[in-house]
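Course assignment 3, question 2. Fill in each field.
Student: A.L.
Task: Predict the tertiary structure for the chain below.
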Amino acid sequence: MTVHEGGPRVLGGPTESRTLPLDDGDLHVCQDGPRDAPVLLLIHGSAGSLRSWDALVPLLADAYHVIRIDLLGHGRSGKPDDRSYATEDQARRVGEALDRLGVERAAVAGHSSGGAVATALAELRPGLVEALALINTGPSLEAFIPQDPLPLSPDRWPPDDEQIRAFARTAFSRPDFDIPEALLDEVRLMTFHSLTTTMRETTEYLRRRALPERLAGLGRPLLVVFGADDGRWRSSSAAGYRAVPGARVELLPGLGHTPILEDPPRTAALLLDFLAQRR
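Answer field:
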């Protein structure tokens, strides 16, 4: 296990970054905020990394022990070609990482397909997950907005800058949004296998059972946040989560698929208000 400090300084000290060696892959983990505060776990989406949450962490780490994890195949975690990238296996690894960190209970927020991993974690480890927040996570495949396929292939990997920007553009409501270069770099760090397999496995997880149906029987407090101008999932589909007893659904006008980057203060305010009601 390696430990080093880096990243933006927040209340509770600088970011602590470490790599946890698990049996089927190494996971990169970052921690911020007071270690004796309630735990808030943040899970990124496909082709993202824990850096997707960089702008949000300083707004959360005063009141919470914020933990971010690079899912296997992403960011600075391992990218093996001979391991499963199924959503349930990603969730299992996240649970094992929290066990290694000594976490017994956590509120969990997931962005995009990270919300599917968060849901799978709650299914696998209901005693670990005390509340869920899903941010622009489509409830079912019927909510997906078809995209132009990227011309990607194993022999032309990694994609060039133009291809990556074209892929990322639908994640934001404004075509002129200044996408952080660091996040584009994270796509380049992925392998063709880890990217395509992760996306295929997320689709399979949603195909087997819609998220509201999975969540309805878990009895966990649920916040659903959707940028109203999402270009990847129909924002009107957020209403489907009202099938979950007590679910709180919030639409954010003027924002797209990635409110955690487009408007971190507004997104953080919803998270903090939701979590404050759970304490």
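Instructor remarks: The radius of gyration is 17 Å. The first strand starts at residue 2 and ends at 10.
Grade: pending
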